[in-house]
Design a protein that fits this description.
Blueprint (H helix, E strand, L loop, with lengths): L1 H7 L22 H6 L12 H8 L6 H23 L14 H8 L7 H8 L3 H11 L13 H25 L6 H28 L3 H10 L2 H17 L6 H21 L4 H9 L9 H20 L8 H4 L3 H9 L6
Helix pairs in contact: 3-12, 4-11, 4-12, 6-8, 7-8, 8-10, 9-10, 9-11, 9-14, 10-13, 10-14, 11-12, 12-13, 13-14, 14-16
Length: 339
């Protein structure tokens, strides 16, 4: 990373040796192609450029920012591509997800874990106690009476629901807000998207024949590469006064960020189908696995839900009116928790 910053500042340091690339989960366009592959449909589809505008809280980019966008895109895409070849180098930009995630995956293969044992583990962490009880009382489970104990909450959630909750708690710091202006603006909203995408993917997965917990993890992972891109933009801005939050720039960076998300998923030892789904969900012209189909639908529904909740999209807008019955049900279940 120091060498990259040196290049941004015009330094001539020796390039760091590049590790041999790990096996690719699927093909994806290179950085140069991604930089120029700005989809025309993104400007019309509410889930495209309007979503990036909402994420940046920037309806339009300034003329100066627009002039700087191509150079910034090239620099950041090059670095995203390098990190995709060596995802361990991204550790200073996005911390590794806690060991709890692989441990949860291993627990899926275990039978006979009692509710009492799960409750014992949860009560060792006060944050988890609050999260478990809050989740059990949330709109997803629609309990007639308030749930007040950990044991009762675990009965409501079930083991799979508990695993999803723990995964969300583990991912939240990974998606945490950085100190730079770009990430400070976009990261909180990006986490809202990740959380809703995960929830939607878990709900959509069974009908498509995919595993709901893998769907949940894929939804949480989908934006990790974009978090890296935001933090790279912060470093670029600090080093060179580069562009701030720019919707068109994020739209250009999205394919490279998606590819990095997939590579980090493999680096974190998540199941390979998750990495493949992240890549395939970003390429509508390629055959997609059931998990990739669920993830693509979940990504779109999460974007539409956020635009609707924040008043960008009207209830009678064509993208919402055109949802089929099942997608409409999932859309409703993505509503924010009542205050």
């Amino acid at each position: 990373m120091k060498n990259w910053i040196a290049r941004l500042l015009g330094g001539a340091g020796e390039p760091a040796p590049t590790p041999a690339p790990a096996p690719e989960p699927a093909a994806a366009p290179g950085a140069a192609a991604a930089a120029t592959a700005h989809s025309a449909s993104g400007a019309e589809d509410p889930a495209g450029l309007p979503f990036w505008r909402w994420l940046c809280d920037a309806p339009t980019a300034s003329a100066a920012s627009q002039a700087e966008t191509p150079a910034a895109a090239g620099l950041v895409l090059d670095e995203l591509a390098r990190l995709a070849r060596a995802p361990g180098d991204a550790a200073d930009l996005v911390p590794r997800v806690p060991e709890v995630i692989p441990r949860l995956l291993r627990s899926l293969r275990q039978e006979g874990v009692s509710g009492a044992e799960l409750a014992r583990q949860v009560t060792q962490d006060a944050v988890l106690v609050a999260e478990v009880i809050r989740e059990a009382n949330g709109p997803l489970y629609r309990q007639a009476k308030p749930v007040r104990t950990v044991d009762a909450a675990i009965l409501v959630l079930g083991q799979n629901g508990l695993r999803m909750l723990l995964a969300r708690v583990a991912f939240r710091p990974v998606m945490g807000v950085a100190s730079g202006r770009v990430a400070r603006t976009a990261a909180p909203r990006l986490w809202q998207h990740s959380e809703r995408c995960a929830r939607a993917c878990a709900l959509l997965a069974p009908r498509l024949g995919a595993d709901p917990f893998e769907g949940y993890l894929a939804g949480l992972m989908i934006d990790v590469g974009l978090v890296v891109a935001l933090r790279l933009l912060d470093r670029l801005e600090a080093s060179t006064g580069g562009p701030g939050p720019d919707p068109a720039l994020l739209d250009t960076l999205a394919p490279g960020a998606r590819r990095l998300s997939a590579r980090i998923a493999l680096h974190w030892e998540l199941p390979p189908p998750i990495a493949a789904a992240i890549l395939q969900a970003g390429h509508e012209d390629e055959p997609a696995t059931p998990l990739a189909q669920a993830l693509a639908q979940a990504d779109r529904l999460a974007r539409l839900r956020l635009l609707f909740d924040h008043g960008v999209l009207a209830a009678d807008a064509a993208p919402l009116a055109g949802l089929d019955a099942h997608a409409a049900q999932v859309f409703e279940r993505l509503a924010p928790d009542p205050a």
